[in-house]
From TrEMBL:
One annotated GO biological process: peptide transport
Native organism: Microlunatus elymi
Protein name (Swiss-Prot/TrEMBL): ABC transporter ATP-binding protein
Pfam families given in the database record: ABC_tran (PF00005), oligo_HPY (PF08352)
One function term, GO molecular function aspect: ATP binding
PANTHER family: MALTOSE ABC TRANSPORTER, ATP-BINDING PROTEIN (PTHR43067:SF3), OLIGOPEPTIDE/DIPEPTIDE ABC TRANSPORTER, ATPASE SUBUNIT (PTHR43067)
Domain ABC transporter, chain residue ranges per copy: 25-272
Amino acid sequence: MTSLRSAGPSMDAPAATDSRSKIILEIDQLSVDFGKLRAVDRVSLTVREGDICALAGESGCGKSTLAYSLLGMVPPPGVVSFGQVRYRGQVLTAMSSRELDRLRAADISMVFQAAMNAFNPVITIGKQVEHVLQAHPDSYPNRQEGRDYFEYLLRLVRLDPATVWNGYESRLSGGMKQRVAIALALLLRPSVLVLDEPTTALDILSQRLVIDILNDLHAALGVTIVFITHDLALVAELADRVAVMYAGRLVETGTIDEIFYAERRHPYVDALIRAVPSVTGDMAAIKPIPGRVPNLAELPVGCRFAPRCPLVQQQCREVDPPLLADASGHAIACHVVNAELAGGGSR
Ligand SMILES: Nc1ncnc2c1ncn2[C@@H]1O[C@H](COP(=O)(O)OP(=O)(O)OP(=O)(O)O)[C@@H](O)[C@H]1O
């Protein structure tokens, strides 16, 4: 029998018994609304220093909106309607735009989904780096140290510094631009790097390279990485923790082992894993998830996954399931799975 408790912002093991690193980001009951549409609904999640954390789920489930809120950058007309995001204990959702600018320069940096289109085509990459250094004169004792650090980053992302520095973005392939964008995002030595779909627009070889590079950067710099993806194969390769979202809600969170190798998991997560060829390894075993993600403006009563769920029971169509965590912090929002676990099922 597994003892389950309500999963609050600190879903990890209690601090007194916890030898893991400090919490760096804390998302506490966060809701983000676009008019009447709630894109993120009371999501709580913690990220610890040095973690590689994946935010996973199908398109439209709220991953990007959640990631933007980590930088205080929810796009208008979106508003944080409830809850907080804290960075090292400071309430980021209450910061002024000046404080947020400072935070985004020095602490939390983001590589956007279309990062490879974000360069200015008429000036060299080196000039663009100079502009960043000029805009943040306090980041390095002198400009040369900033240039040297960028050169070091380019080597880490396996690019030739001289070619990149003097080149224009039109001379770089999509994969190279993505790697330059990652190096640029790390230029001011942030503690947290957020990446939106870091491999989506790339061919398979460039995807492999980006995964290896992110692992290298994590090892060399100790940077905390949060990345968004719909690709569970990428989650398995890169992350050590994962939070799976469905229709604006967090449905399961835990370590890779807890989610990929547990006997019981959320039926949506189970379906996502079965839908990915490189995770199952067997093309014949791939099962697309029937049905569609609900329209966030017309959500079903009860569990949002109920209309697509193979385990659905009457209770699921009436009551929204709470996210319940076991002692290690592995949390699931499913009436059926949690009743089994609480009643003696194993995890
Ligand atoms: N600027 C916006 N204005 C209005 N609605 C928005 C805006 N941005 C996002 N939304 C809505 O919020 C919901 C969540 O979108 P979001 O982009 O966060 O999901 P996602 O999981 O990241 O999807 P994708 O992988 O397709 O980007 C969607 O219903 C979307 O239509």
